[in-house]
Amino acid sequence: MTDSEPDVVGEDDAQPELCDRCGAVIDDGSELYAVVRDSSVVHAHDPKLDGGRMIVACSREHLRDLQEQYRQRPFVDAELWAGKIYRAMDEHPAGMSEEELVEATGLTPAQIELGVLWQNLGALRWHQRSGQGGDAGTTDE
Question: The organism sits in which domain of life (predicted)?
Fold first, then answer.
């Protein structure tokens, strides 16, 4: 290998992981994995992987803690749908018709509407927290 060639990590070279609970570096192969439901996760290209987050832990206790943390987080369908819409729009920067969006996302028109509303609600909340408006329709006396 020359200095101009990038370092290539072989398939047999294990890379260290970080515990999602405590941040500990796990470099001895003892990490534990699980997949938890998470409506905020949308895979970049594979819709079958949407809604599932892989977690990594350094111990069974931390894995249980993480699983419980995600069990307590509500799974919001509209949040997942918003992510699916974003992915489809990102793949079609020139725009899409409603029919094309239905086809690309696998969602119904009603689900698309709810996903868009979820995204808009998030933007409105951000504006309200940051003091940048969102008070339309209210008047000062």
Answer: Bacteria
